[in-house]
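Exercise 7. Given the components listed, write out the predicted structure of the assembled complex. Treat all entries as one system.
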Amino acid sequence: MNALRAELLKAVTTRLLLWFGLGLLAFLLLVLSIHIGSHDLLSLSQRSTQRSTLAFGGLAAIVAVLIGSLLVTAEYAHGTINQSLLAVPVREKLLTAKLAAAVLVVFAIAVLADAATLLIAEVWYHGRGVNLHLGSDTLAPFLGAVGGSMIAAGIGVGVGALLRRQTGAIIAILLWLLIGEGVISAAGDSARFAPGHALGAVVAAHEVGARDMLGVWAAVVVGLLYAAIFCTAGFLVVLNSDAPTSGD
Amino acid sequence: MIEVEHLTKRFRHATAVDDLSFSVPRGRITGFLGPNGAGKTTTLRVLLGLALPTSGHATLAGRRYRELAAPLRTVGAVLEASNYHPARSGRSHLRVLAAAAGIPQARVDQVLAEVELSGAAKRKVGGYSLGMRQRLSVAAALLGEPELLVLDEPANGLDPEGIRWLRNFLRSFAGRGGTVFVSSHVLGEMSQLADEVVIIHRGKLVAHQSVAELTLQATGATRVRSPRAEDLLARLRAGGIDAEPTEAGTLAVHAPPERVGDLAAEAGIPLHELVAEKGSLEEAFLELTAEPQP
Ligand SMILES: Nc1ncnc2c1ncn2[C@@H]1O[C@H](COP(=O)(O)OP(=O)(O)OP(=O)(O)O)[C@@H](O)[C@H]1O
Ligand SMILES: [Mg+2]
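Answer.
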């Protein structure tokens, strides 16, 4: 519990979360404006469009995986991992605290992203004179964004522990999301099991899957499996390696 | 208090610590000496659980570091490199550590005052001077009010004033019953501070003795100047005393000044200078860690 408190304190005593939060808000504003602004009124009034609009909060999952990795790699980059290990020498305990902290922090960020999405969408819809229906059918992606982000944070912590290099981890994650997932899409139906696709399916939160998208519960299981695999591998690497003598 | 047993640490291309064994007694200041690259930092990092040993082990108060129930309350460590997030304030840095170790936050301001860093506590560590970072490291080590301090070259980057502060600080810490294990490659510093020294070279133990013993062991010589140096030299050698002329025109005699003075008086040889050159720890150290002559 102490270790978790310390991890949360670490997260809020740098500007990291602030920048990610602001960046996410700006990005949401941009993409939502483009999305709503470019649809015609007829399609805007459809429930399915409204649902996919509100799913933009799921962009928080991308920030989540980055934050998860940074909570680990920043310690290696600055060498603070040494001090952290002196205070909490049982490495699996330190990493578990980081995992829990990442999930909690990301939970807050995803809720914020959902709230911002709702606000921005309401303003745009109002401006265009369309009524935004708020019911379980359109709001399901809000829960999906929160759940998907929390799973993404777990994957991020695992990747961070596995690589332990700050820029390396960020580049690996972005390359995977921008290129890797796209390449896999070409592989056909099994692409829906790729981590990015699975998280997307959690966010979309469709009860029943499709050829290119898993149903929400299957996607949650697949996502958790990825988080478990990356965390296990990453934790083992950290447990069996020396802390760096100083930051890079 | 500290036990190192058959500790070996190999890196890919180097054996940093080679079957090293020694122990550090409670309630004293023990210096940990060795030239650059001797393996001091590596030994301390294994001791503190930051690096994993290849074989052997190191324990504090009978346990491995990771087995300590309350590590920061048992041992305070000052690492060689200061490891801070540049955007975090000194105070926040300590608050994080205190939180992790379950130490009350009030203690943070106490240790900041103890190392005379209160004024800069809210500033970002990125703007600290080397000396301030070193003090922050000491503050972190003191957070848990440990009985044992392990410091890796804490004097690095400190000015003479800072070094004196540190020395007094460690002395008073040991004076209150604390145990100090402090590494250095600056010998003069150790001879004024430590009760005993562990000397390593190329990862192996070279000596473990009290500073007094070590100083004695260092070859002490007597410097003599006389207008009849050659007579004196012959006389000394006849008396079975080792002596040789120096470039400065004096004689270096391997005997205490009393014997040299008495002998000169018996022979009626006038002396213009008679100085006991104290063997220094420095010399002993250099002798012990000299490269073997090919
Ligand atoms: N992480 C590492 N990877 C590879 N080699 C290392 C590593 N750390 C130390 N070494 C090597 O191990 C040896 C001992 O290094 P160490 O830092 O322990 O010496 P030291 O006694 O602390 O020296 P100094 O007085 O310069 O601080 C050196 O040859 C060094 O190059
Ligand atoms: Mg060193």
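Discussion: Residues 2-239 of chain A form one domain. The pocket of adenosine-5'-triphosphate (ligand 1) is lined by residues A 245; B 11, 14, 16, 34, 36-42, 185 (CB under 6 Å).
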